[in-house]
Specification:
Elements lengths: L2 E12 L6 E3 L2 E3 L1 E11 L5 E5 L10 H16 L7 H11 L4 H19 L3 H4 L8 E3 L2 E3 L4 H13 L5 E4 L4 H15 L5 E4 L6 H10 L5 E5 L7 H10 L4 E3 L6 H9 L5 E4 L1 H4 L2 H13 L3 E4 L6 H13 L14 H4 L10 E3 L2 E3 L12 H6 L5
């Protein structure tokens, strides 16, 4: 079987007003992503998703479309899509980084591989390490006090048992937001904070110390991108587990984190890591060194979310039971792109055992939300 063509479709879907995200990187109201459709000479089609965010990964909907159309797509035409290692090799020869664009092609190839084998992707990764239903945390934006209080109350009513609060801005404002959430949900429910690299090291250390009475369960990405020693220094000052996310894109980053003893948990997801296979490499490397992994989110649609869920289910070291992750992205959006959307009910996300990624894209919906020419 050989790849015959690679098609890109830039799509825009707004977020539901109640779920628009505010972080240290700014506000996210609308998702401009790229869907990738790969055809083969066997008539099997695969789909992928580039969940790009300029202020986070540096990739845009237009840069992803262009680099796939003119470099990555032509590089994989003629290749066997079930040979993931060869697909990765060809993609690496086209350019550096551009992880989300590479991931879109790679996950589409996993989709084809699973369909050809008549197996779900998680089976190809080694078989299910956990049930097909996964409990997630909820990521709350950096809201004002009243909105934070009301949202926290609603999340408890919806059945969430872990809440992540975005921080990374002014220290006093961040502390007050987390304090209000703790007051609202009670003393025992886990709270995670996520600064998205918004604090410098000294501010991060001071804020974590100030929040000690609030009983944090996890501190996610409190320090700047690239400062492995700074994150290690923060970790050495606190008894709270530390998660790395925004600074770990590839296996080299994971190796540096572990060499510096900088974290207890690594947040992985296929988009950020250049694909399902590359995420699996990080997860297995971390596991060999006693570091847990969990699933992060870039507010994916159903295709990207499916890739994440198969990774979680297929990899034992994705310790979502101890460190809940986030696969709720499709439910943040006003429109779903799948004919058979992933089942998201409050904190519970369930995928099926259908072959490949298990998602049938509704191309009529996609075309109606296409942007550009």
């Amino acid at each position: 079987m050989r790849i015959t063509h690679v098609e890109t479709i830039p799509v825009r879907i707004p977020l539901k007003p109640a779920r628009r995200m505010i972080t240290a990187l700014g506000q996210h109201n609308v998702s401009d992503y790229v869907l990738v459709r790969i055809g083969t000479d066997a008539g099997i089609e695969g789909v992928g998703e580039a969940t790009v965010m300029p202020r986070w990964s540096g990739e845009t909907v237009w840069s992803a479309q262009t680099i796939i159309d003119h470099l990555m797509g032509p590089a994989v035409v003629g290749a066997d899509p079930t040979d993931i290692a060869e697909i990765d090799r060809r993609l690496e020869l086209t350019c550096r980084h551009n992880w989300f664009a590479k991931a879109a092609i790679e996950m589409a190839c996993w989709d084809i591989k699973g369909k050809q084998a008549q197996q779900p992707v998680y089976q190809l990764l080694g078989g299910p390490a956990r049930p097909l239903t996964v409990r997630c945390r909820f990521s709350m934006g950096a809201y004002d006090p009243d909105r934070a209080r009301n949202r926290a109350r609603e999340l408890v009513e919806e059945g969430f048992t872990t809440i992540k609060v975005k921080v990374g801005g002014p220290a006093d404002t961040d502390f007050e937001r987390v304090r209000i959430v703790r007051e609202t949900i009670g003393p025992d429910m886990p709270i995670v904070i996520d600064a998205n690299c918004g604090w410098d090291v000294e501010t991060a250390i001071a804020c974590v110390r100030q929040m000690q009475p609030l009983k944090l369960a996890l501190i996610e990405q409190p320090t700047p991108d690239g400062d492995f020693s700074g994150l290690a220094r923060l970790r050495s000052t606190t008894q709270v587990p530390v998660m790395a996310d925004d600074m770990v894109f590839d296996l080299v980053d994971a190796e540096e984190l572990i060499r510096h003893k900088a974290c207890d948990v690594i947040s992985v997801y296929p988009g950020k890591n250049g694909g399902i296979g590359r995420s699996k490499q990080i997860v297995e490397f971390a596991g060999r060194h006693g570091v847990a992994c969990s699933i992060g989110s870039n507010l994916e649609w159903d295709v990207g979310c499916a890739a994440m869920a198969h990774l979680v289910i297929g990899c034992p070291n994705m310790q979502v039971e101890k460190y809940p992750g986030d696969m709720l992205g499709p439910d943040y959006h006003e429109v779903r792109i799948a004919k058979n959307p992933i089942d998201i009910r409050g904190p519970l996300v369930t995928i099926t055992d259908r072959p490949g990624l298990g998602i049938d894209v509704d191309w009529d919906v996609v075309r109606s939300h296409r942007i550009g020419a």
